Amino acid sequence: MEPPSHNTAGKIILAIFASLALALFLTPAAFAWGEKGHKLVASKAIETLPPEIRSFFEGNRNYLLRHVADPVEASAKNPAERRHRYLYLDRYGRFPYESLPRSYKAAVAKFTKAKLEANGLLPWQIGVYSEKLTNAMKAGKWEEARINAALLASYVAESHDPFSTTENYDGQLTGQIGISERFGSTLVDRFSSFFPVRPNDAFVINDPTDHAFEACLSSHSWLETILLADRNARRGLPSYTDEYYDRFYNQAAAILIRQLSDAATDVASYWYTAWKNAGSPALPQH
């Protein structure tokens, strides 16, 4: 067998680089909840807060909505930020992925820091920002508290996006490229003006990191149903037409609305928990 010609070898190299570039482009950073979804979750979260802290968050509503998508923008500019916004659960065996310790130190000891970073750090990032918000509130650093609340909301919302929990984050492993954007952004953009997002009242979370893992597991459990809905909606159609989106919404809306509602409940609960853990300090009036 003759070695490939220089032209052939060059084409192979170009193809490899093209594949790598596509893989880089199709990261979870590009396809998670869209900006509208993040703002919807944060806005609904404010409505579930108890009276003793709601006025502070209501007074900062515009600020929170303006900054809640900051991690999405940051990860588009800085690839290192992307690992904070997903968790490839399916790289740790089978559901419920008990081989992955929820303690970061234990997980590093078992899998190495490099592997954890490659597979995503989302639940631990939520734990980090929950603590940051707590500390800022405890110290009365309200500017820090505002930005930490917005960033925490973004990460918590991500934990409720099923495609933030899988290495098939954009359907690339099942021949359904673009599924994450279609589910998490386009359906929200098209239908959120009339679908009912009804979160529950905020509650105190006992362990912020552990709760984030539970949210990721719950989100992950919906993946196959969403992928099937996408295939069914596309059947017989030449492209992703209006008819496709009507079909997809009819089949996937219940999951979408549930995930957004649960995300809003959790965002408010993380805010409330941080305030309680800070000693329930008096909040500034805005």
Sequence-ordered SSE layout with sheet pairings:
Layout: H1 6-25, H2 28-31, H3 35-47, H4 51-59, H5 61-67, H6 70-77, H7 79-82, H8 104-111, H9 113-119, H10 122-138, H11 142-158, H12 179-191, H13 208-220, H14 223-234, H15 242-277
Structural class by secondary-structure content: mainly alpha
How many structural domains are formed by the residues?
1
What is the helix fraction of residues, given as a range? 55-70%
The parts where pLDDT drops under 50 for at least 5 residues are 1-6, 8-31
Question: For the terminal residues, how far apart are their CA atoms?
Answer: 76 Å
How many strands, what sense, and barrel or not for the largest sheet?
none
Shape: globular
Order of helix and strand elements from N to C terminus: HHHHHHHHHHHHHHH
Q: Count of helices?
A: 15
Question: What is the assigned CATH homologous superfamily?
Answer: P1 Nuclease
Describe what this molecule looks like in 3D.
It is a single chain. This protein has helices at residues 6-25, 28-31, 35-47, 51-59, 61-67, 70-77, 79-82, 104-111, 113-119, 122-138, 142-158, 179-191, 208-220, 223-234, 242-277. The model is unreliable at 1-6 and 8-31 (pLDDT under 50). It has a single domain, classed as P1 Nuclease (Orthogonal Bundle). It is built from 15 helices and no strands. The longest helix is centred in the C-terminal third of the chain and has 36 residues, at 242-277. Helix 10 (122-138) runs antiparallel to helix 13 and helix 14 packs antiparallel against helix 15. With 286 residues, it is mainly α. It is globular and about 60 Å long.
